[in-house]
Amino acid sequence: MERDKNNNDGMEKIKNTDHYKAQYQKDFVDKWDELIDWEGRAEGEGAFFINLLKNKGKNKILDLATGTGYHSVTLMSAGFEVHSADGSTEMLHKAWENGRKRNLVLRTIQADWRWLTRDIKERYDAVICLGNSFTHLFAEPDRRKALAEFYAVLKSDGILIIDQRNYDNMLETGYSSKHKYYYAGDRVKAEPVHISDDLVIFEYCFPDQSSYKLNMYPLRKDYCCGLLRGAGFQKITTYGDFQKDYGIKQTDFFIHVAEKQ
Ligand code: SAM
């Protein structure tokens, strides 16, 4: 694996916020559920998001990074009103199919986070951006613009739940993972093939020998919390692998709960 701070020749074109659409091509999207493994994921997450939203009295939810629909379906099945947005039509199509298999009809909205309010007029109790999705934004102005849009689609007492990989660990000590959360499937090898201060490339190798890459901006935890505060969120609570008490070095994923008031 490359650990290259300086030599970014040829990398500039893939450090681009719009690149996610090309990377989530149809055959990768078709394989996504094999990667995340819905049953394994349900075991890892438990009822964390359901309990969090219920305890805070939130019912109308916007899933901003629907992907293949895992959280939209889980929350709808638990009785929440959910709208499912994503910038990728391939993903939304798959999510809709996954909903139908479970007798649910997803209300899908194709929208890029940076221009959310152009397509979304309703306001929500909570918005969720899960599965290490925010990492796809490569420029700081894009991150700030997206968070301002997330803030705008929330009601005045709304909350944003956003998660991220523990990039601090990855940048400082290299990659390690318990493979317990999010990407719970054990048949797919998911590992970074490039790590530098402004680009991480993950490669996903499937049992049929196919492989796909995703480009990510390595968001440091404190930087991410700073962006949330800058967007106007008043209170931020961070969980490590779904626990309130966590060790930074032992954590795979951070979950930030950002409250508007
Ligand atoms: N939340 C799902 C999960 O956990 O399985 C999907 C996660 S996937 C890593 C990231 C998702 O974010 C993709 O479906 C992608 O299309 C979406 N996405 C990335 N950048 C986006 C943007 N700028 N606007 C809207 N959606 C975006």
From TrEMBL:
Annotated S-adenosyl-L-methionine binding sites: Y24, W32, R41, A65, D86, D112, W113, L130
Keywords (A to Z) from UniProt: Methyltransferase, S-adenosyl-L-methionine, Transferase
Methyltransferase domain mapped to chain residues: 61-158
GO cellular component, one term: cytosol
GO molecular function: glycine binding; glycine N-methyltransferase activity; identical protein binding; S-adenosyl-L-methionine binding
PANTHER family (alphabetical): GLYCINE N-METHYLTRANSFERASE (PTHR16458)
Family listed: Belongs to the class I-like SAM-binding methyltransferase superfamily. Glycine N-methyltransferase family.
Full protein name: SAM-dependent methyltransferase
High-level lineage: Bacteria, Pseudomonadati, Thermodesulfobacteriota, Desulfobacteria, Desulfobacterales
